[in-house]
Amino acid sequence: MKSPTMAAARRLAAPTLALALSGCAAFSPDGGMDAVDRSLQARAGAPAKLLRNDADRRALAEQIRPMLAHPLTADDAVRIALLNNRALQATYWELGIAEADLVQAGRLQNPAFGYQHKQGGGATSIERSLAFNLAGLITAPLASRIEGRLFEQTKLRVAAEAFRVASDTRRAWYEAVAGAQSVDYARQVAGAADASADLAARMRNAGNWSAYDQAREGAFHADAMADAARASKHAAAARERLTRLLGLWGDDAGYRLPDRLPDLPPAPRDLADVEGTALRERLDVQAATQDTEHTAASLGLTRATRFINVLELGAVRERDGGEPVRRGYELTLEIPLFDWGGARTRRAEAVYMQSVNRLAETAVNARGEAREAYFAYRASYDLARHYRDVVIPLRKQLSDETLLRYNGMLLSTFELLADAREQTVAVAAAIEALKEYWLADADLEAALGGRLPAAPAAPAAAPEPVPAPAPVPAPAPAPAPAPAPAPAPAPAPMQQHDHQHDHQRDHGQGQESAQKHGAHQ
């Protein structure tokens, strides 16, 4: 025979269970990663994947190994970072936490079972009760919708963090490649400066140069050595930043990079509406919008439960000794005697207005950052093109003319060395300008919220490569010391003749050294 109490509980639980199951959420197969992956495929051009076990990590190692077998490209660096960066993997797991909260919000609280047994004076009283939280049941659909919005917001936040890592990785790649290129050029300059300083010392010992000229070449050599050491330090730091973003260690950290930065595109990107693009595409703007909507929904829930914190309904069955069994129901309601819920409502309203203003701030900042990034991009492109099309060709022409005049005995070795010093400064500045352009290009994509179409091609000629250091005379064997001249009665003409002879000997040594250096290049 069925217990009347249990029958009443079942009658009460049936509609309750139906209402609860109608808003019940279940775990998704992908855990929210599909949305993040699609977003990154569109914005960063690379996939995202959550590594759940050792098998996933072994598969990732097999996927990364071919990328490290050749000089690492910027796109491959982004792919590795999105899959192998451990901090980013930890961020991916936030999706699992948010989805668990969503599923939990859609589940009704467990019922409470009560049992009382009283005995005394020859009488026995037994009371049984089964209670359900009606307040949680009534607000469960709204709470599920709120957690659903929060889950969607978490997807945007995770995708935004992954896109930030992708942008940082692309920037780090440009800095690492430019650093290695600068080190290579700085070492060439240091080697040429060492040869110049050696030549200056020999010519000084031969009496052909003054102490001032020798000191000038020595100072240039010292500065070149310091610049090479400084470039090596910066290049090592840039490579380590890239390695950390890639999540590589051990033998994998010995990856190779290209020898030089990509060439400047023939023409820059011409973007008409950078502000509108930023507002449409940036993930932080979308996340702030969803945060405001989530806060508004939370405000509605707070107002709905302003006067009801506890509302429980249950079935009761009581029997006293030999008396007939009494059945009924029990309703527990919190009386808003001291707390009318006004403080909670005011707090929710304040949080909502705070969210609205933060959304406005995010939109204003997105507009400003887009304008700033596009201006920096165009200015960096113009500067890099100026070095490529104007400064470097002029420096090369000037270097060629200087060498021609030197070969014609119209310029001294000192003037040839001075021109070489000026050329090294121009080439180093050209490398820096090209690096700044590519960094500005990465910043523009980050400010607009995703990858941009390639720069349009122009019918211009291909840019000339950045020249190597101008030929700098290498040290030549010092001439054998001449015997002491006999005293001459007329020193003035003799000094003039010696000056001309010294210039010819200086030219002969410098020309021979320049030819050797040119053959070496």
Automatic annotation (TrEMBL):
Disordered: annotated span: 455-521
Signal peptide (residue range):
1-20
Q: Which PROSITE patterns match?
A: PROKAR_LIPOPROTEIN
Give the compositionally biased regions (Basic and acidic residues). 496-509
Q: Does the keyword Signal apply?
A: yes
Recorded coiled-coil stretches: none
Q: Which UniProt keywords apply?
A: Signal
Q: Which InterPro entries match?
A: MdtP/NodT-like
Gene Ontology molecular functions:
efflux transmembrane transporter activity
| Sequence ranges of Pro residues compositional bias | 462-492
Q: Which domain of life is it from?
A: Bacteria
- Cite the PANTHER family for this sequence: BLR4935 PROTEIN (PTHR30203:SF24), OUTER MEMBRANE CATION EFFLUX PROTEIN (PTHR30203)
Annotated protein name in UniProt: RND transporter
Species name: Pseudoduganella dura
